[in-house]
Design brief:
The strands form four sheets. Strands 4-1-7 form a three-stranded mixed β-sheet. A three-stranded mixed β-sheet has the order 2-8-6. A two-stranded antiparallel sheet has the order 3-5. The chain is elongated and about 90 Å long. The chain is α/β, with parallel strands linked by helices and 215 residues long. It is 52% helix and 19% strand. The protein has seven helices and ten strands. The longest helix is centred in the C-terminal third of the chain and has 35 residues. The two termini are 40 Å apart. The protein has two domains: 85 residues, eubacterium ventriosum atcc fold (Sandwich); 77 residues, no CATH class.
Length: 215
């Protein structure tokens, strides 16, 4: 059991963080910390963990081994414990630029026309007009080239169904459940992060091997 007098540092790393180019990565950037037994929390948050180089690219991996090494060099008496993931991804770059309005409009038009053509081609493939005419004749006993009684509710249903499915109407969200699109985007980002973390660990290991061979 650890003596009560030993100061302790509890760390929870953030999943990712973005800092400006040329700015050093500090403990306060990447972690939430709780310090007991010492009155040096602000000094700890200011501990520099790493100074990104041009060769590091746009993403730097900070893991617990690096944090423990840097913190112990300044506060060797600290007992360190962490919660959650043992690493965090730090994106290097300036402020996020606002979206280009012209590009946004062009993409919106492309998606609008593309989705409209996809729906029309689907209806042409399955002969939806003939299906509506046949259903209308079965229900009313009369033939009609334009059974609006079916076509209007069907058209409205497509739009309402898409709104309900994606759980969004412009910026309005109907409930707290994530939409299928949000889930897919989350899973994609998780997979990208996992890939980047794996590649960064490989790079760190390769650099360590090269240093050992050089020594």
């Amino acid at each position: 059991m650890r003596p009560a007098s030993v100061p302790s540092l509890y760390i929870r790393l953030r999943k990712n963080r973005r800092i400006g180019r040329g700015e050093p990565i500090r403990l306060g950037h990447v972690a939430q910390i709780l310090l007991t037994g010492l009155d040096s929390e602000e000094e700890l948050k200011d501990v520099v963990l790493y100074e990104p180089r041009e060769a590091d690219g746009l993403v730097v991996l900070v893991d617990m081994m690096l944090i423990v090494r840097k913190v112990k060099s300044r506060f060797p008496e600290l007992a360190i414990e962490y919660f959650g993931e043992p690493h965090t991804l730090v994106e290097i770059g300036g402020k996020v630029k606002p979206p280009n309005l012209l590009l946004l409009v062009l993409v919106w038009l492309l998606l609008f026309v593309g989705s409209g053509l996809a729906i029309m081609n689907f209806h042409a493939d399955v002969s939806m007009a003939q299906v509506h005419q046949h259903i209308y004749k079965l229900l009313t006993g009369r033939e009609s080239a334009h059974p609006l009684l079916l076509q209007i509710p069907y058209s409205l249903g497509i739009g309402i169904g898409m709104i309900v499915f994606f759980n969004h109407l412009f910026k309005k969200k109907f409930n707290e459940e994530p939409s299928p699109l949000e889930v897919e985007m989350f899973m994609y980002q998780e997979n990208v992060n996992h890939y980047v973390i794996t590649e960064e660990y490989h790079r760190i290991h390769a650099e360590a091997v090269r240093r050992e061979e050089g020594d």
